[in-house]
Every structure is written in C-alpha cells, then in structure tokens.
Amino acid sequence: MNLDLCVEHCLDAARSCEEAWFHARSMDGPANDEALFAALSDAARVSALSADRLVQVRDLTCMLASVCAEVVGRAATACAAYRDDEVLAACAENCAACMEACYALLAAETVETAPPALAAPEDDFAEIEAMLQAGVSERITEIQFGAASRSAA
User: Fold this and answer.
1) What is the pTM of this model?
2) What pLDDT score does 151 carry?
3) 3-152 is classed in which CATH architecture?
4) Cα distance between residue 30 and residue 36, in whole Å
5) N or C: which end of the chain has fewer CB within 10 A?
C-alpha cells in the first residue's frame, strides 16, 4: 500500500466523519446515538491527525496506522447500523476503505522494517494522545466554530 494512497483515504474518512456527524445531529433517529457521535468524532480527529503525521513523522507509521485503523473501523461499524441513510452509509464505506488502507500500509511497513510488533506499548499511546491534544485542537475549534455558525444561520 502506497503511503500517499493511505493518507488520501485518511483525509476522505476525516471529511466523511465530519459530514456524517453534522448530518446525524439533524436527524431524528441517530441524533440520540451518543456512541455514533463519539465514534464519528474520534475517527474524524484520528484520521486527520494520521494523515498529517504519516507524512511528517515516518518513524510512527506503524503506530499511527494501527490506531487509525482501529478507530475508523469503529466508526464504520457505527455508521453501518444506519445503512438506509446515504450520508452514514457513505461514511461507513470511507471509514472501511481507510481501515483497509491503514492495515495494508501497516503490513507493508512491518515487512520493510520487521520485526516491530503491531501493538504499541502504553507509552506510545500516551504519545499519540499528546499529539491528538496538540495537533487537533485547532481543528476542533474550527468544527465547533462551524457548528455555531451553522446553527446561527
């Protein structure tokens, strides 16, 4: 799997999750599904961060791809429960494609750099959390500002 293709899938998943989050908030059924919103929010944040960091920090490729695959996989499953809705079904497909791309990249990187384990130690997850907090705070503000602007309009 090509790194650029994986980054493209991560960006598609991030955009799709954001769109699905706003779409679902306006609907009757999913508007009460907090697990769906948590999965969409997490996937949007992690896939956007992964797209950025996969290119910038090559030594974290395996860790980022593994975490991203797990998080977008959860969003794909959550959205798939609403397969009759076009936006949520499209999000499920984009997240599934991102998950597959991340696993393919992970497999390719593992073969190239063997023998790193697929599971990262707890210290690595703390580093990812710190990156998430630092790297997406601006995007969260943009999303919140966008939501406030949409609701004011």
Assistant:
1) 0.71
2) 53
3) Up-down Bundle (1.20)
4) 7
5) C
